Amino acid sequence: MIVAPDRRPLTRDFFDRPVLDVAPELLGRTLVRRTPQGPIELRITEVEAYNGSSDPGSHAYRGRTARNASMFGPPGHAYVYFIYGMWFSLNLVCNKEGTASGVLLRAGEVLTGTQQAAERRPKARNARELAKGPARLATALDIDRSLDGTDICSTDPDQPLTVLHGHPAEAAEVLNGPRTGISGEGAAHPWRFWIDGDPTVSPYRAHVPRKRRSRAA
Q1: Per-residue confidence band for 67, with pLDDT thresholds at 50, 70 and 90
Q2: Region 190-205: what's the mean pLDDT?
Q3: CATH class of the structural domain 6-195
Q4: Are 113 and 39 in contact (CB under 8 A)?
């Protein structure tokens, strides 16, 4: 018998825990993005954990700034950042206020609102590629800095972002390994989590240093 996904929103207590407990348990949950054009729902299939001041890979490693302020809590809020001058990424804030830990949503399966997502991602070759990677996910769901700090645990039906219980992945389905594109000490942390065999999971890429352009003599 097929059981319908649980439509109850995740509570603040779910996020008010260590990030390494929250991250794998987000797999299989349903992210709801409400837009003027209608809702888009996405099943989360890949995430990465970032652990604040103890994690060299985290934006908050060197302390609080205007850019990363939402990462310092309270838990159950969105942290949205702009990267490479062209892409946004969505993170869900975890743990006690002031700890600056969060989970990056790396990939997911679009369940509803596929046409709307496809219009934002015209280069996607099929539905599996609509949200295959953090920038693609944010683009498909129309996520930008205006959503930074959004309370994702609010029961307001007009709230732009909510995470529902969904169908949490079984522990045997969850794999973990190094995070994508992280350099230095943080590269060794196996804090990327994904659902084994899911076709929407993005390919792993190690960090590749960027070459500086040489100036003409």
Answers
A1: confident
A2: 94
A3: alpha beta
A4: yes
